[in-house]
Amino acid sequence: MDLPVWQALYEELGEQGFLPIAVALDTGGADAAREWIERAKPTYPCLIDQHHVVARLYDMINVPNAVWIDEQGRIVRTTEPAGAGDGFRTMDRTTFQMSPEAIEGYRQRREVYLNALRDWVEHGAASRHLLAAAEARRRLAGPSEEQALAATHFRLATWLHEHGEPGAAQRHFHEAQRLRPESWAYKRQAWALEQPGLAGGPPFWAAVDALGERRYYPEIEMEGMPR
Amino acid sequence: MAVTVLWEDREALPSDASAEGDALWLPVNELAASTAWELKPEGACRGDLCVPLPAGREGGFLRDGGRQFNLTALAGLLGQPALHETAPAVWAFGEAGGSRRESLQSLEAPDFTLPDLNGRMHSLSDYRGKKVLLVSWASW
Q1: Are A51 and A215 in contact (CB under 8 A)?
Q2: CA-CA distances (angstroms) from residue B71 to A204, B22, B76?
Q3: What's the Cα-to-Cα distance from B73 to each of B5, B28, B30, B47, B81, rounded to whole Å?
Q4: Helix, strand, or coil here: B14?
Q5: Where does residue A187 rank: exposed (0-12), middle (13-18), buried (19+ CB within 10 A)?
Q6: Residues A209, A165: Cα–Cα separation, whole Å
Q7: Chain A residues inside the 8 Å CB shell of B2
């Protein structure tokens, strides 16, 4: 979990105006997220997003995904994996051990991402990591009609789940997944509600394996970022 | 009949809704509480924004002498996806893709309000003046 990483960065840069806002995409609500938050003792806002509202507004299809928002409330880096990469795919699935190369790749990717944040805090609008407005607009295509419909199925599914209708909820979760197959948040949330552990269990690994050469986390287009 | 209305990020339980096929009719005076839209002489309005009801199709929107309003027709007019379940009766009207695509082009970060672990509400706009890293995680 990344909550302690954001806490450390907040302690380092908070006085210079930096603020992480962590959002738990968790239909299980505060009960699902509590343990992790209490352990991390964050002093920055840690919010609970039962209906994945932030995921919809910012097109976050996985965790951790992040977007940079400046002092005027403008998007200056669009949603992307927050320093996360595909190294976990080399993990031994019984011991959960990653190869040393994968661990090193993970460390490097994280370091480049955190340094980019430091650069932004230091240089503000002049930071080389901010996107030009035209590029930000290009990346912020917004939802297609199909994706908007997928989000509606997902919203209905969370309501049905909360109102004791797990069967009907799963039908709408499946529709959301069918319409937005690239969303891991849709898949993993539905698995987690179907049965504890399933989101990191056999269906997850089967879906990851089905990617083949395709990536789980899209490449982060950032200067110095390992591929 | 108790009907739950999910309109974008709102949830409402209007007191007198009636579902007929794909149409959900609400008393006009409950429209604003369920959707933030209200009926004015100019058409359906949300704040300063008004969308005229299509000429000649008023009957698809209003009935019972103008006392009942068809929410499904409004969602269609606004380009919002509409879904429903009958038992329990729940209607979901999602966000219109077109208006989101348009508003994102301003690069303004969409606002939202969510609770923390203690139930205290936070809006993104509360933190204007900060460099915000908005980052997702999950317990799953």
Answers
A1: no
A2: 39, 10, 9
A3: 14, 13, 16, 20, 11
A4: coil
A5: buried
A6: 31
A7: none
Listed by number, the residues of chain B in 83-122 with a beta carbon closer than 8 Å to a beta carbon of chain A are 83, 85, 88, 90, 92-97, 100-102, 104-105, 107-112, 114-117, 119, 122
Task: State the pairing for strand pair A18-25/B131-137.
Answer: parallel
Contact B27, B43 (CB under 8 A): no
| Distance, CA of B114 to CA of B120 (rounded, Å) | 8
d(CA B16, CA A23) in angstroms, rounded, equals 36
Q: What is the pLDDT of residue B115?
A: 98
B1 pLDDT band, cuts 50/70/90, is low
Report yes or no: A20 and A68 within 8 Å, Cβ to Cβ: no
Which residues in B lie closer than 8 A to residue A68 (C-beta atoms)? 131-134
Distances (CA, A) of B39 to B28, B44, B49, B50, B78: 7, 5, 12, 9, 14
**pLDDT higher than 90, residue A92:** no
Element of type H or E holding A190: helix A184-194
Q: Per-domain residue ranges for chain B? A: 4-99
| Contact by Cβ (8 Å): A24, B138 | yes
pLDDT in tens, A35-88: 999 999 999 999 999 999 999 999 999 999 999 999 999 999 999 999 999 989
Q: Is the pLDDT of residue A1 over 80?
A: no
> According to the model, what pLDDT value does residue B35 have?
96
- The closest alpha carbon to A58, from B129, B111, B9, belongs to B111
CB contact under 8 A, A6 and B133: yes
In tens, the pLDDT along A125-169 reads 999 999 999 999 999 999 999 999 999 999 999 999 999 999 999
Phi, psi of A175 (to 5 degrees): -65, -45
Q: Is A40 on the interface with B (CB under 8 A)?
A: no
Q: Which of B85, B97, B131 is the closest to A144 by Cβ?
A: B97
For B56, the token pair is: 């000649």
* pLDDT of B7 over the 90 cut: yes
